[in-house]
Write a structure and sequence with these properties.
Layout lengths: L3 E14 L2 E13 L2 E11 L5 H5 L3 H15 L3 E10 L2 E5 L6 H17 L18 H5 L2
Parallel strand pairs: 3-4
Antiparallel strand pairs: 1-2, 2-3, 4-5
């Protein structure tokens, strides 16, 4: 029987990783006797048929959230989920919570690459650049 021990909304974290600090805010955390379920809410206005494709854009986010929450609570991550408000579908990521050693290594490599890169042209314009206040001037959006 599932027994809820803790529930958090807008759970903020800051985790040191080498010379870097990884920060984020997880929309919802549920901690029970089996471990931690984390969920991020998405306001994308998409159709049900688009959920899996859209969820792929958030793979890195769920990997980082799972890694960070595991470090903080030292509990297994039993599920990493995205709740797409429109069309009212919960997507459970199949692998985001499985390999924290690999995620930490990947995250360290990405941070190091960002730190070493001087030329903005080395950062490809992504789908979400239109939403980033920093990227607007750099990419002339």
């Amino acid at each position: 029987m599932r027994v809820v021990k803790e529930f958090h909304r807008e759970f903020e974290f800051s985790i040191p990783l080498g010379n870097f600090h990884i920060t984020g805010t997880v929309d919802q955390l549920l901690i029970d006797n089996d471990g931690v379920l984390l969920m991020d809410l998405k306001t994308n206005n998409i159709q049900a048929a688009e959920v899996e494709k859209e969820a792929a854009f958030y793979d890195w986010q769920l990997r980082i959230y799972g890694w960070a929450i595991n470090k903080i609570f030292a509990q297994p991550i039993i599920a990493t989920q995205l709740y797409f408000l429109i069309p009212d579908i919960v997507y459970s990521h199949p692998n985001a919570h499985l390999n924290f050693v690999q995620t930490e290594k990947w995250l360290g490599e990405v941070c190091s690459k960002i730190q070493r890169t001087q030329d903005i042209k080395e950062y490809p314009k992504g789908k979400d650049c239109a939403f980033c206040g920093y990227a607007c001037e750099l990419f002339h959006i």
